[in-house]
Structure formats: structure tokens, C-alpha cells
């Protein structure tokens, strides 16, 4: 699938500029012609490597923008505003340029006779498979406004969950980064200036000072190669961790980390329970709901485990039994609640309770994590800063004492 940038005029003579996804240029022309647009120019967007990554970054629609769009769309539909009028209003007030273009194309697709879910599906980089399938199911039952309400609640909970995890980790990351910046300045610029003073003294320089002096000279002489190596390694790591193998490895490392791994497992279980609950409420069969949720959970390892669960359920096995076999990923409580839901016929309600339970668990874990990380971080950084300054102050103190 390629992306084409176009400029065109509609029947009223108004200029329109945007992007269209199509297999080739001819198909892109046909799509725009079906919307009764007179095409003035069209150019395929090409890019690779860093440039393509930067382009995709600036064209990316944030989760917050999608949540706000969904919430506003749900409110308008609940007020019995027609879909086309609602989309036109949202197009006029949306500030995100990529989302604004997507809303315009969705409205044009709906005008041309496509179902709303089909129009959303053509923008898979914005609207997930989970999102599209819930809307498609709602179209069959005639409950589109209710589905959009479910989706807006779900996306809002997702944003809240991510904010909790991010807030727990951002402070330690900032402090550690700041320390390494200060250490790099000390080693690269301060220690080379002090070396002539230490060389003229008769007493022996401490080992930590000699080590840092050597490091300082190396950094001062070869800083350009060090910077180039860091950039190259960072780029290769970025490209590797974008691959399926790299994402799986990174996910596995995260799940094995002390404290962080326990938090991530609770996050993934919460996402699974919440998404399955919403999908089953929307009328999607359990096996299909599990398969769809596997693509929105954000973990390759959990996605593979859920794929195995979905296959087992399609083969006739009870969901609770399938989840029991994946005990490395799902705690016993999940299979037990699923068993109760299967017996009572209220599977979506049981998963909803599971998501609420683990949301509270995440709150408690994040609070404990913050309380544990900050003192430990202060101790570790205190020791490292102490060693750094001791390497400077001890030789200076010995030098003063020698006079």
C-alpha cells in the first residue's frame, strides 16, 4: 500500500489537499474520482530509513486525539446528529492535520456509500483493528452510537493507564539522564584540565582518578568518533527493536525486570480484560474478541499467547481452560473469573470486574514503585556523584596538604 499526496477541486470549485492510501497511482485516481474530485496533481510519498521514520512521527495521530474524536463523535451520534453532519463538524474543529485529513476522507467514503467501519478500516494507522471491528459489529446491531461510547471510555482508560506508568518512570529516567550528562561533561572537559596539576605532584594519584583521567583524555581526543558510534548504535538498535524479533526480545526483557515486569504484566492483563469485555458487549464472539484484543494489547508475547487461546476456543475448548494453560502470562484469577462467566453467561461482566481489579492493583503498584525507586535512586546517584567528586577532591586535598 502506497501513500499519495494530492491536490484537487470538488464540484463547488473548492481546493482540497490531502493524502490517499492505494496500491498504485491508478487506484488512487479511481478513489478520488469516486468522490467526484477533479485531480490537479498527485505525487507518491516515498521515503526510507530515518527520513521515513521522522515523516511517520510527525504524521502520527496521538491516542489523545483519537480519544477526543471518538468522544465527540459519540456525543453527536447520541444527540441524533446524522453521521455525515457529525463528521463535517468534527473535520471543522479538529486541529491535528493528519486526523483532519482522515476525517475528510472518512466522510467522503461514507457519502459514496461505504459503511462507517469500512471507512475507518482504510485508515488502519489511526484506527486499530479493535476499533474497526467494534464499529462493524455495532453496524449489524444498529448500536453505533453505543459502540462509540464504549470506545471513548476504553480509550480514556487506556490513556489513564499509560499516564500512570509513564509518570512512575519519567522521574527516574530524567534524573539518570541528567547524571550521565553531568558525568560526561566532567570526564570530557574538567578532568583533562586537571591532569597537568596532578602530573606535577610527587604523591600517587588514586586509582579512580587515574581511570577518569584516562577516560577524559580518550573522550577529548576521540569525541567525534564516540558521538558517531553512539548515533550508529542507537539507529541500529532502533531498527532492530522495530522488527518482530526485536520487539519480542524487548518485551521479554521488560517482563523479566524486577518490579517493572510485575507492573507490565498487570498492564497487559488489564488491557486484555478491558478490550475483551468491550468487544463481547458489542456482540463479537469470544474467540474473535480474544484474537482482536491480541493485536491491541501492545505485547508480542501476550499477543502470541492470546492467539493460542483463541485457536483453542475455536476448537471447542472452554476459555477458562485455555487461559489456565497460559499461566505464565495470566494469573489464576483470570481463568477463575472466566469460568464463572461461562457458567453464568456473563463473561463480559466478569472481565469488566477483572479490569477494575487490576486497575486498582496498578495504582497500588505504581505508588509502591515510586516510593521504592526514588530513595534507591538517590542512594545510587549519591554514591556515583560521591565517587566522581572524590576523584577530584582527594588529589587536590593531598596537594594542599603537601605544602
UniProtKB/TrEMBL annotation:
Keyword annotations: Cell inner membrane, Cell membrane, Membrane, Transmembrane, Transmembrane helix
Domain Type II secretion system protein GspF: start-end pairs: 69-192, 272-395
GO cellular component, one term: plasma membrane
Annotated compartments: Cell inner membrane
Topology within the bilayer: Multi-pass membrane protein
Signal sequence coordinates: none
Protein's UniProt keywords contain Transmembrane helix: yes
Transmembrane segments: 169-191, 222-241, 376-397
Gene3D superfamilies (UniProt xref): Type II secretion system (T2SS), domain F
InterPro entries documented for this protein: GspF/PilC (IPR003004), T2SS_GspF_dom (IPR018076), T2SS_GspF_sf (IPR042094)
Main localization (coarse): membrane
Family: Belongs to the GSP F family.
Name used for this protein in its record: Type II secretion system protein GspF domain-containing protein
Organism expressing this protein natively: Candidatus Harrisonbacteria bacterium CG10_big_fil_rev_8_21_14_0_10_44_23
Amino acid at each position: 500500500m502506497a501513500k499519495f499526496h494530492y491536490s484537487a477541486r470538488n464540484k463547488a470549485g473548492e481546493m482540497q489537499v490531502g493524502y490517499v492510501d492505494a496500491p498504485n497511482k491508478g487506484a488512487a485516481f479511481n478513489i478520488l474520482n469516486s468522490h467526484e474530485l477533479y485531480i490537479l496533481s498527485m505525487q507518491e510519498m516515498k521515503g526510507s530509513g530515518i527520513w521515513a521514520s521522522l515523516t511517520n512521527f510527525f504524521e502520527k495521530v496521538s491516542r489523545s486525539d483519537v480519544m477526543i474524536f471518538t468522544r465527540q463523535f459519540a456525543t453527536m451520534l447520541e444527540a441524533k446528529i446524522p453521521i455525515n453532519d457529525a463528521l463535517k463538524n468534527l473535520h471543522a474543529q479538529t486541529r491535528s492535520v493528519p486526523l483532519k485529513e482522515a476525517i475528510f476522507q472518512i466522510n467522503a467514503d461514507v457519502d459514496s456509500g461505504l459503511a462507517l467501519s469500512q471507512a475507518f478500516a482504510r485508515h488502519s494507522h489511526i484506527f486499530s483493528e479493535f476499533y474497526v471491528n467494534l464499529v462493524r459489529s455495532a453496524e449489524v446491531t444498529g448500536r453505533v452510537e453505543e459502540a462509540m461510547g464504549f470506545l471513548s471510555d476504553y480509550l480514556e482508560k487506556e490513556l489513564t493507564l499509560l499516564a500512570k506508568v509513564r509518570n512512575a518512570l519519567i522521574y527516574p529516567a530524567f534524573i539518570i539522564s541528567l547524571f550521565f550528562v553531568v558525568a560526561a561533561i566532567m570526564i570530557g572537559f574538567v578532568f583533562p584540565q586537571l591532569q597537568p596539576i596532578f602530573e606535577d605532584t610527587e604523591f600517587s594519584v588514586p586509582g579512580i582518578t587515574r581511570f577518569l583521567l584516562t577516560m577524559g583524555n580518550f573522550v577529548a581526543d576521540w569525541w567525534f568518533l564516540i558521538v558517531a558510534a553512539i548515533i550508529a548504535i542507537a539507529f541500529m538498535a532502533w531498527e532492530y527493536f522495530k522488527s518482530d524479533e526485536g520487539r519480542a526480545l524487548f518485551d521479554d526483557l521488560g517482563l523479566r525486570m524486577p518490579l517493572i515486569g510485575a507492573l507490565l504484566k498487570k498492564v497487559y492483563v488489564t488491557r486484555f480484560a478491558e478490550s475483551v469485555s468491550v468487544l463481547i458487549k458489542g456482540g463479537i464472539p469470544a474467540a474473535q474478541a480474544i484474537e482482536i484484543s491480541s493485536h491491541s494489547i501492545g505485547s508480542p508475547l501476550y499477543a502470541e499467547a492470546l492467539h493460542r487461546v483463541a485457536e483453542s476456543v475455536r476448537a471447542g475448548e472452554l476459555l477458562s481452560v485455555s487461559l489456565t494453560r497460559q499461566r505464565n502470562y495470566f494469573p489464576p484469577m483470570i481463568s477463575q473469573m472466566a469460568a464463572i462467566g461461562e457458567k453464568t453467561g456473563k463473561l463480559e461482566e466478569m472481565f469488566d470486574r477483572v479490569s477494575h481489579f487490576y486497575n486498582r492493583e496498578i495504582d497500588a503498584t505504581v505508588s509502591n514503585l515510586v516510593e521504592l525507586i526514588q530513595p534507591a535512586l538517590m542512594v545510587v546517584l549519591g554514591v556515583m556523584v560521591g565517587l566522581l567528586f572524590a576523584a577530584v577532591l582527594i588529589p587536590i586535598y593531598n596537594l594542599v596538604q603537601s605544602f
